């Protein structure tokens, strides 16, 4: 055999053998890959149901306009899913340039990009990595970030499968709505809100490029971190590549390069915190905590953001001023009495402020705790409770002209008129007025307007404790359940109530007896925009119209309250009638002011969380200035024109004691001498001594007048008031 033939033969056999080896190797590799594919595919999630995949979305709480985000309720993520056509094209283009320029060309794995990334990493700063957008989405949203060979195989398998089942636009939509952008922002909408306080559709080109720069290393590139310079460099690099690849023009590029980026201020993740957590508790009680944190609900609340800011400022400034008086906390609630909608809620002077005193035992010895929402806590209302009692008396037929006696009186029937117990274990009860003065005969109007204690206890006895509680409950109070605890001290604030409920109940007076239950949520929408709940007013007439008008008439009667409060007190507005009631509890533990017009009602509480006394300062000095400041600004902000209360019907009664007379037939007797407390307009009692309170009341009246047959009428004596500028305070009262 010739040498050439021999070598040709040898070469052919070699090539043949090599081909056979390569073929076997290829088949072997295919089989190995097939086995690997099958092995690692066993426990992979099915990518076919991504459209129906339960994506965690944050629930957002908004103000009443739906524009101010008060809070994102979320577990690990804040996310808002938006439609693909709502995402600006420049965002899509910037993302493709930054992460996967051949996204629309490959099938899920881009081998050219892998090689290019390796080379760029060795020779220059790399804009892109080797992973495609499809792979990144799988890694971030379906698998995990663990750096293992196994995870990479699973990632590749799922990428190929995802590309087979979905279009490129669908995959890009998945990515843009689910990829993390830092600061717990997941998806382009959350990123736009977090960094620029705007919706994704409103992003500029420069802002779009900057957000596209974040997914590579969200924490590192955070605009609020130490590497803002590097973030801007990456943003500019993305813009350059967008220009080179003809996604934008030179003019677009120049404008974007020169645009000043205004990042959203780093703020607390929560606005109106006490109100927000009040809302959150309502939602979680109804829907469950897990659902609320994951369902992507949109909660439109009743909160008026402007009024909330006014309220927070008024409470903060007022509490600062009250520190020197020993009152370290304050709370305010305002609502629309015509709807019951809560407009403002400030649970404490500052949710984020350190407790007072430093190092105190939370819930035990702290005079101030910022996270406690006093608006929903139990506190004694002092004389702020009196209007419910007087309303009950009016129900029974008593009038605002009914005569009472502001004289030293013993009200415990187990004690004689001198305050001496008639049996062991009896604790006598002889309340005093706040200023320790007595004014003799007064009308019901004078007693309520001036917040006189002794006549108010008389009114409670006449009205009845049980019936007075019924009235308060009809008007919205829910906390007076154990009625065995309450006696005649109830009218002076002996029962615990909530500020929110008190404000709502006073709103019944403002609406002439119609109760609109307090409401804080206008609308609840699910992640797809379906309305789950929507506010519907549910008014109920709970108090006679004329009685409500009478209470408003008395509480807005500045002339009637002048003897105690002064002509120009903090409760008086020169441009409009405003009804108001103050309250102070024993030992000055609580100070209150609640007041209203037909269109707004607001209440303020002042005191200390641990119920410690606040010094010799009544509610008119601690709470009223805060209330007045809020109301003044609220009138202006809401552009509320002065409104008048409809006057009550003038009723004529034949019984003199109910018509403003106390000298009858030349004699003076206690109110019980002339009325059966349960039927005041009925016949004069034939045996008034049968009433257990009669002897003590009668003795008190006789002692006051010294058994005079025809004494001269006793008028309410004004208490001197010192009026400092700019807003004169009033003489303290309960």
Describe the 3D structure:
The protein is of the alpha+beta class and 734 residues long. 39% of the residues lie in helices and 11% in strands. It folds into three domains: 83-257, Biosynthetic peptidoglycan transglycosylase-like (Penicillin binding protein transpeptidase fold, Orthogonal Bundle), CATH 1.10.3810.10; 270-380 and 496-648, Beta-lactamase, CATH 3.40.710; 400-485 and 652-717, no CATH class. Residues 32-45 and 707-733 have low confidence and may be disordered.
Structure keywords:
single chain, 734 residues, Penicillin binding protein transpeptidase fold, Beta-lactamase, 3 domains, 24 helices, 20 strands, 39% helix
> Radius of gyration from the CA trace?
38 Å
- Low-confidence regions: 32-45, 707-733
What is the end-to-end distance? 130 Å
Largest sheet: 5 strands, mixed
| Separate helix tally | 24
What gross morphology would you assign?
elongated
CATH topology of the largest domain: Beta-lactamase
Number of strands: 20
Instruction: Please estimate the helix content.
Output: 25-40%
The structural class is alpha+beta
- In CATH, the homologous superfamily of the largest domain goes by the name DD-peptidase/beta-lactamase superfamily
- Assembly type of the chains comes to single chain
CATH class label of the largest domain? Alpha Beta
CATH architecture of the largest domain: 3-Layer(aba) Sandwich
> How many domains, as an integer?
3
Strand order of the biggest β-sheet? 2-1-5-13-14
Strand content: 5-15%
User: How much is the average pLDDT?
Assistant: 85
